Amino acid sequence: MMNPSGLTELVESKKFLFFGGKGGVGKTTMASATATWLADHGYKTLIVATDPTVSLSAIYEQDIGETDLTVIEGQQNLCGLNINPKKAMGVFQSRMNDMMEGFSTLFGSELLSTPCTEEIAAFDQFVSHMADTEHDKVVFDTAPTGHTLRELSMPFDWSGYIANQIESRKELSELMGFVYDENMINDLRKEKERYDAAVRALSDRSISAFNLVLLPEKLPVDETERAVEDLGTFGIKVPGLIINEVIPREVLQGNWFLERRRATQDKYLAIIEEKFKDMIRQEVPLFETDIYGVENLRKVGKVLYG
Ligand SMILES: Nc1ncnc2c1ncn2[C@@H]1O[C@H](COP(=O)(O)OP(=O)(O)O)[C@@H](O)[C@H]1O
Ligand SMILES: [Mg+2]
Predict the structure, then answer these.
(1) Residue 162 needs a FRET pair 20 to 30 A away by CA distance; which of 44, 58, 233, 280 works?
(2) Which ligand is nearest to the CA of 293?
(3) CA 164 – CA 210 distance, rounded (Å)
(4) Atom of ligand 1 nearest to the CA of 287
């Protein structure tokens, strides 16, 4: 099948491939189909899921490890990793906890709120795989949202503020029994650098492609528009959109219900074309079954990349 959209060139020319979007729109499906296609085409590929569910294991019909890379059976060149963000507590997170504890002893805890720890842990994992040198391609089955990135930058603002407060109230801190630890602040600074490097890599269009998956419906279209804008504030440009679950015309056959659904989709397909003119847009049909197993993934891969 022809691939007129340019998505193929995009995934072949970038190393880090992200699939973002609302829940249930097909991120894991598109990420897995992409990973399978790349592996089939000779790229040494790693697919990383940071979803707390086991969807990657379900799709590949085998247990995929939480810490060690699992070789995917029936498929050359492909490994998977299913990180459990709840368990993957990063250095940053524990440092942050220590610091917040110290700070609340000093100044009371009302002021403080730490961002969602799962988001941090998940991002921590992105960060470590953004330094990958073992694979040709790393496919992430979820992408951080602008909201996540914003939340994540908050503790660094906090940490700077806290560090200053501690410095200027060192005596008071000591008086109140808070052990001031120079290393703690240095570690936080290092983590901040690591975070910045990851955001830089995410926004580096020569190595990363940040794609969004959506359905041709009002809510996903609105959300996609917001996401594109939001990510833009972090310097992240979205090159590709995958418009999923488009009802094939050949199945309509005068069925009023399907005709009506497809007409609704057509309305949003037109809106998508208008709103996201400059992006690569690739439609994927609604399949007659759900999608799991390498054979089905190959069908999706064929639609996406030829
Ligand atoms: N084009 C499609 N045709 C049929 N079923 C699909 C299609 N895309 C996704 N699905 C099914 O929809 C469900 C949600 O997809 P999934 O990739 O898990 O979404 P997400 O990761 O965004 O939450 C899965 O059961 C998947 O098999
Ligand atoms: Mg998923």
Answers:
(1) 233
(2) 1
(3) 36
(4) 3
- Cα three-residue angle 21-22-23, rounded to 5 degrees: 120
Q: What is the pLDDT of residues 85-121, one digit of tens each?
A: 666 655 556 666 666 666 666 555 544 455 556 666 6
* Cα–Cα distance measured from residue 32 to residue 297, given in angstroms and rounded to the nearest whole number: 7
- Is the pTM above the cut of 0.70? yes
Span from the CA of 209 to the centroid of ligand 2 (angstroms) = 18
**Residues near 223 by Cβ (< 8 Å), separated by ≥ 6?**
21, 22, 214
Residue 209, SS3 per DSSP: strand
> What's the gap in Å between 84 CA and the centre of ligand 2?
13
Which residue ranges have their beta carbon within 6 Å of ligand 1?
21, 23-29, 55, 244-245, 284, 286-287, 290-291
Alpha helices (H) in 91-142, listed in sequence order: 91-107, 117-129
Nearest CA to ligand 1 atom 2: 286
Residue 166 belongs to what H/E stretch? helix 146-168
CA 110 to chain centre: 32
3 state SS for 280-305: EEEEEECCCCCCCCHHHHHHHHHHHH
